[in-house]
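Input record (Table S2, row 341):
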Amino acid sequence: MRKKVVLVTGSSGEVGHALLEQLVLLRPEGVLSLDLKPLGSQLAGDFIHLQGDILDRELLDRLVSEYEIEEIYHLAALLSTRAEFTPDAAHRVNVTGTLNLLELAAQQSEWSGKPVRFIFPSSIAAFGLPDLDTKARYEKVREWEWNYPRTMYGCNKLYCEMLGIYFSQYYRQLAAEQPPMLDFRCVRFPGLISAFTVPSGGTSDYGPEMLHAAAQDKPYACFVREDVRIPFMAMPDAVKALLDLAHAPLESLSRKVYNVTSFSLSAADFRDWVLKYFPGAQIDFLPDEKRQAIVDSWPADLDDSAARRDWGWKPDYEVERAFSEYLVPNIRQRYQEKATV
Ligand code: SER
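Output record (serine complex):
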């Protein structure tokens, strides 16, 4: 008998790390984690970690011979800034990697006779507004609007959303008997902010970077203009969105891809929140024209009413609570502990 597990890819990344903490509580002994890197030492719990590559087909074949994979959280990806420097590698990881996992899920669904749930985080990078006037006019963008990404990462995410829909509705549509297909569910995240990890390789990173720098008493030069606005979310809400969507009854879902968001801030608003808790913070604005253009193309806010209506999505942390109860106390503790080590 193969052991039944939930598979998490990209488990040592920011979202993976936070999700794993919750999943080991929900599914003790049934979590399989896969990442190129070892896991951070702080992660405790009963789970199996495999260090390996989602592009390694032999490894994936070995996985299905040893485990019955019932659910997949496929988080592994190269983010938007990094992907611009290595577009070919980004395409391989973000697209071929996702295709490998979708095929694995399809195969598992066929064997077990029931749909494997495939949870996929997409991003505001799947949108692309052509100019600042349009961005100002379409403040809260809905899922199907402005799907014209201008980054490799955004193109990869948008295409993989479509692949997910294809695999869950049309895969092997010409076969005499169509096997049970996987159950693909996707959230489009805004910029995520964690108190425990600092992001790397993204273009929304200026928010969390500003905050983590202030907590360490380091000066920070923000790489976008003060006025640019995008939506954000605290990491516990990102994990909640993934888990809530995963556990929503299928019949309540009217879409496969849902916007989710929490609060929208300009870079100046973000600085002001940071200054409220770290009044001595040294924050300058030194826009990088190219990264700025990417953030300019992302929506100022998202319309997440479909998620609210269909599966009761509601963030726990609006901006005030995100800073006062989650970000600031945990970040303070994190750097105090580091300072005393
Ligand atoms: N945080 C992502 C990035 O900056 C966007 O979703 O690439």
